[in-house]
Design goal:
Length: 247
């Protein structure tokens, strides 16, 4: 099993269409996590009429340093051309190929409360290679409702319907107390990739990948940096914009 918290994540040597993820068995996880950033930046550059981009400009657009970007892309066999840079369309095709984005993957959302409802209507999935194909919830008041053209089914039907709907990735947006049971259902339905928004650790069998998104963790990390900055500045314990918690 692999479980990770997100926070993050041409003059090409290898032809884009000829590569598969198994061609890159040693691709570092940190590089994989940065590829979507490069892809986003490359699409933006292509949309604004650019054909080529220097490593410095692409690195700036992706928010990384250019040495790291060149190293990342060298793992894919992309070295750019001196004086020209990377050919944008080729690099897009290659990164999409490595990330397996050449086919649109079906996503099931489980839990369509505040967060799940918002995710169900998120246009960014479609434009980035994903399609929400099924919605599940346990609340009888939600079951049968249509959200963004999809009918909410009872979660008890997940194992039956997920394979039929071509679900490749399950997104859990239920309370933490329900998340493990939902993960078990997704696994029973043959889903091997799970994005977990619930604040808990999931136990899954080998071969199932779980990524966790937790905005509170990101805020806590920022809080640590705020805390350190105020300590360095000799400020009082409660900094600007902060309020003491009740004891
Ligand atoms: N990761 C983040 O950054 C982040 C941000 C906000 C919320 N969350 C988490 O996301 C989850 C959802 O938050 P929310 O605000 O949408 O809560 P919510 O209460 O509005 O929605 C939860 C939904 O899950 C459904 N549900 C409960 N048990 C279920 C089950 N066994 N099977 C299927 N559906 C079930 C409920 O009926 C409800 O519709 C919570 O765990 C919350 O802590 C995470």
């Amino acid at each position: 099993m692999s479980q990770a918290t997100s926070g993050v994540g041409s003059g090409t040597g290898a032809a884009a269409g000829a590569t598969t993820p198994s061609d890159f068995p040693d691709l570092p996880e940190a590089t994989v996590a940065r590829l979507p950033e490069y892809l986003r930046a490359l699409h933006q550059l292509a949309d604004t009429g650019h054909d080529t981009v220097s490593s410095e400009a692409l690195a700036a657009a992706a928010g990384v340093n250019s040495a790291k970007l060149r190293k990342d892309l060298s793992h894919l066999g992309s070295y750019g051309t001196r004086g020209v840079g990377y050919e944008i369309s080729l690099l897009i095709a290659q990164i999409e190929h490595v990330l397996g984005l050449t086919q649109r993957r079906g996503v099931a959302l489980v839990g369509v409360g505040n967060l799940g409802h918002a995710l169900a209507g998120y246009a960014g999935f479609g434009s980035r290679g994903f399609r929400v194909v099924a919605l599940f919830d346990a609340d009888p008041r939600l079951v049968g409702k249509t959200i963004n053209g999809l009918v909410v089914r009872h979660v008890d039907l997940l194992v039956e319907f997920a394979p039929a709907e071509g679900v490749a990735i399950g997104v859990i947006a239920t309370p933490a107390s329900a998340a493990q049971a939902v993960a078990d259902m997704l696994v029973a339905a043959g889903v091997t990739s799970i994005l977990n928004f619930a604040p808990c650790v999931l136990a899954v069998p080998d071969g199932v990948d779980v990524r966790k998104v937790d905005l509170a963790i990101e805020l806590q990390i920022l809080s640590f940096h705020e805390h350190r900055k105020s300590a360095a500045g000799g400020a009082v314990a409660v900094g600007a914009g902060a309020e003491a918690l009740p004891r």
